[in-house]
Amino acid sequence: MSSLKEQLLEILKERSVHRGKFTLASGGQSDLYIDARLTTHDPQGAILVGRVGWELVKQVAYELGVHIDSIGGLTMGADPVALSIGISAHLEDSSSGLQTFVVRKSAKTHGRQKLIEGNFASGDSVVITEDVITTGGSTLQAIQTVEAAGGKIAFVLVLVDRGEGGRENIEKHGHKVVPIFTRADLIGTDAGRRSHSAVA
Known about the structure:
Strand content: 25-35%
Number of helices: 7
Helix content: 25-40%
CATH topology of the domain at 48-183: Rossmann fold
């Protein structure tokens, strides 16, 4: 597990970590931008996300004493993370039954007009996932959508916690957040941090 996690960390550092001045989706300004899709959409990166993520899902589910039916989150950052973990679960143990789903930002205007696509059903015990959390807004939107559809949130799994309040924001709503990596893992405990003009 540790060697796989170390491999994933090296890919994240090489492909996804950018330093400079950036405006985030929250409106805040940061000295760090994590383009996680360059890792999660890389075949080797996706395999590692799946294997490391699935091990963590199993570990946390065991600790909490819960069974997980499905995993997913708000499109599109969560999509490759959830699918990679679902594939790893099936390859390791096809009887795991873990399914994956996608939460839309808004309902389709045609067809079945669903907000949740894929393999989700009311009553499912769900892991909400995300590639990167900053303020936690996207994750909370996914949580609210899943709960409104009858899902039960077991916990939240995130590839990278930027350490900018998102984890605390989600946890104050009563949901455990489990990061695979933190800002410190990616760039160390530098003093630069961020200066922000607005936080959503």
